[in-house]
Amino acid sequence: PRLIRMYDTLTVDDPDHPELDGATVIVLERAEGSLDAVLTHDPKPESAPALLAQICEGLHQLHHAGWIHGDLKPANVLLMKDHSVRLADFNMAAELQGTHAYAPAFATPDYTPPELQWPEIDERG
User: Protein kinase domain: from which residue to which, for each copy (predicted)?
Assistant: First the structure.
């Protein structure tokens, strides 16, 4: 399993913080950091091949379940205490319909594929 585990959802009801009243909180598996933090310190980590393989495993798991991530970027690749990878942040995830999925309207520009930024581009460029 290369997808972050969700343990629970809670509704905030705290008299000391009425501004949060009714907010939903998601309780997730605890990560130690992100690939973004690793790449900030070392743009070419020795563990890159293993990390990439685990990211691919997570994408395979997600696609096999009929979904696409929609916003894959280093900040959404979490690293666990045992150095394993978990994909996270599924706000932009979309369900596959055959071989296609609805493309999210908002994604992180630096990590958005060109075919989504410029739909008039075809396989010729």
Answer: 1-125
Q: Please write the tens of the pLDDT for every residue from 76-117.
A: 999 999 999 999 999 888 888 877 666 666 667 777 766 566
Contact 62, 55 (CB under 8 A): no
- The CATH number of 31-117 is 1.10.510.10
HEC profile for the chain? CCECCEEEEEECCCCCCHHHCCCEEEEECCCCEEHHHHHHHCCCCCCHHHHHHHHHHHHHHHHHCCEECCCCCHHHEEECCCCCEEECCCCCCEEEECCEECCCCCCCHHHCCHHHHCCCCCCCC
Among 28, 32, 90, residue whose Cα is nearest residue 62: 90
Catalytic residue among 21, 36, 42, 71: 71
pTM of the shown model? 0.80
CA dist., res. 113 & res. 125, Å (int): 12
